[in-house]
Amino acid sequence: MFVAEQGLFAADDHDEHDEHPATVHVLGFVHGEPAGTVRLYPLSGTLWKGDRLAVLPEHRRSHIGGPLVRLAVALAGDRGGSRMNALVQAPNVRFFVHLGWSPVGGPEDHLGVLHQRMTIPLARR
């Protein structure tokens, strides 16, 4: 559903990070029903990347996106990360700023859609 809705990928969004043992796939539930997901993985040293945040349309009003992003940030910090980066679609920048993320540079085209590089410092819990 994510792939079809976003229109960013030809067939699917599977890449080399999906099967890497350090990649963490988080699945969020609302009332026991799968509702959203996010993926995180180390890039190099203590730098992590968060991506593939997706919430099913019928659960978008449940506000599960915030907890998914906060959990990804916490997990990366717990795994020794000092900073997390993400490439966020332009309409979602304010949401990420609200969660403590900061824009880096200006908006840029990514796969035909305007995105913003974002970053957040990490800490161990």
Automatic annotation (TrEMBL):
<dbReference type="InterPro" id="IPR016181">
    <property type="entry name" value="Acyl_CoA_acyltransferase"/>
</dbReference>
<dbReference type="InterPro" id="IPR024035">
    <property type="entry name" value="MSMEG_0567_GNAT"/>
</dbReference>
<feature type="domain" description="N-acetyltransferase">
    <location>
        <begin position="1"/>
        <end position="123"/>
    </location>
</feature>
<dbReference type="InterPro" id="IPR000182">
    <property type="entry name" value="GNAT_dom"/>
</dbReference>
<dbReference type="GO" id="GO:0016747">
    <property type="term" value="F:acyltransferase activity, transferring groups other than amino-acyl groups"/>
</dbReference>
<keyword id="KW-0808">Transferase</keyword>
<protein>
    <submittedName>
        <fullName>Putative N-acetyltransferase, MSMEG_0567 N-terminal domain family</fullName>
    </submittedName>
</protein>
<dbReference type="Pfam" id="PF00583">
    <property type="entry name" value="Acetyltransf_1"/>
</dbReference>
